[in-house]
Write a sequence for this structure.
């Protein structure tokens, strides 16, 4: 039986364990964190991501946790409604939207009885036929998969530094107390920043912040409470309550600088990178979770087709997947204007586009475009 050692227990790593396990691989997942991460904002699975979830048999569990359609309200700085996007406009056909934590929970449930999951563990060395783990064990490995995120230790060890492109933005996501009588999202978009609250009922409410920051590492050193209060403390509506909630549990926040990963190749010998470790597209493009699902599923297909010729399998896999990744990364660079518009004029243009989407003659075009994404 062939063995894959997978570094990282996020969406990419767990999906890889699921896909390879279905083909008879012995899979070992090592994760630096002491436990699986929970929480996170909403991820949308459409196109290849949805297709992969369907092939992997995940849809029933995901649809049971789906956030469903909800109303989105664009607001002024003081929280007053500016315009409303009805829930019906968010329905795209073959798609499912879930909280990232729920997606990882579904994947964990699917693999936990068939995969050796080792939390609080890292790979100390593993470019050759063996992987030496921090818990003192040595495993024979036919394949080492680096799915350990944008700051991948696997990438640094095997491919060296210089592949991470840091961008002048900071993002945050964290759970908040629910309060809305009906499922809805409220979003403020102003020059250089976005603040959004989504409230879908008990235990299903969270906040998302993104803003342009010329010194993101300094913001990270200050921590989410101080950095976000300075950047968004002047806003009204539900933002003050969200920031107070953050102050009570700052450790529960995802708070990070924004980076892309751009590499000339994703594999070396029997080591391959997957997900954000290989091609982080950033939140500005979306589709990160979908690309992780599709990438892992296609990797399994390529390995099955090429049998013991791992090198050829990895080459075919990358050739087929890279065009979609390049397209998403370009989309992310354009998406920065949406999340952090540089001027009030750009904010006005964005409002105009959202208003256009609500027009009956435009709705069908938008839905068809999203379905083709």
């Amino acid at each position: 039986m062939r063995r894959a050692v997978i570094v990282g227990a996020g969406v990419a790593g767990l999906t890889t364990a699921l896909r390879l396990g279905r083909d008879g691989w012995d899979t070992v997942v090592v994760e630096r964190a002491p436990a699986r991460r929970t929480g996170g904002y909403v991820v949308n699975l459409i196109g290849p991501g949805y297709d992969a979830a369907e092939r992997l048999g995940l849809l029933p569990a995901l649809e049971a946790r789906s956030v469903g359609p909800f109303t989105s309200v664009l607001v002024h700085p003081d929280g007053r409604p500016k315009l409303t996007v009805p829930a019906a406009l968010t329905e795209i056909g073959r798609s499912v939207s879930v909280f990232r934590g729920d997606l990882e929970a579904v994947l964990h449930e699917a693999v936990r009885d068939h995969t050796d999951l080792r939390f609080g563990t890292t790979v100390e060395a593993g470019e050759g036929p063996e992987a030496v783990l921090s818990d003192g064990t040595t495993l024979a490995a036919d394949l080492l998969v680096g799915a350990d995120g944008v700051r991948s230790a696997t990438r640094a060890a095997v491919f060296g530094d210089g592949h991470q492109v840091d961008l002048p933005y900071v993002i945050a996501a964290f759970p908040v107390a629910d309060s809305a009588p009906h499922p809805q999202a409220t979003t403020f978009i102003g020059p250089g920043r976005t603040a959004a609250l989504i409230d879908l009922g008990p235990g299903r409410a969270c906040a998302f912040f993104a803003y342009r920051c010329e010194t993101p590492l300094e913001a990270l050193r200050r921590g989410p409470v101080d950095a976000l209060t300075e950047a968004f403390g002047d806003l009204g509506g539900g933002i003050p309550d969200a920031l107070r909630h953050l102050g009570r549990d700052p450790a529960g926040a995802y708070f990070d600088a924004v980076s892309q990963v751009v590499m000339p190749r994703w594999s070396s010998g029997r080591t391959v990178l997957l997900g954000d470790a290989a091609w982080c597209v950033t939140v500005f493009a979306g589709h990160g979770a979908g690309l992780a699902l599709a990438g892992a599923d296609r990797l399994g297909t390529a390995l099955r087709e090429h049998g013991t010729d791992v090198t050829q399998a990895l080459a075919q896999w990358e050739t087929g997947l890279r065009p979609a990744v390049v397209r998403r990364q370009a989309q992310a660079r354009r998406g920065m204007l949406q999340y952090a518009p540089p001027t009030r004029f750009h904010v006005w243009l964005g409002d105009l586009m959202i208003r256009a989407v609500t027009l009956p003659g435009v709705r069908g075009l938008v839905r068809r475009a999203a379905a083709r994404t």
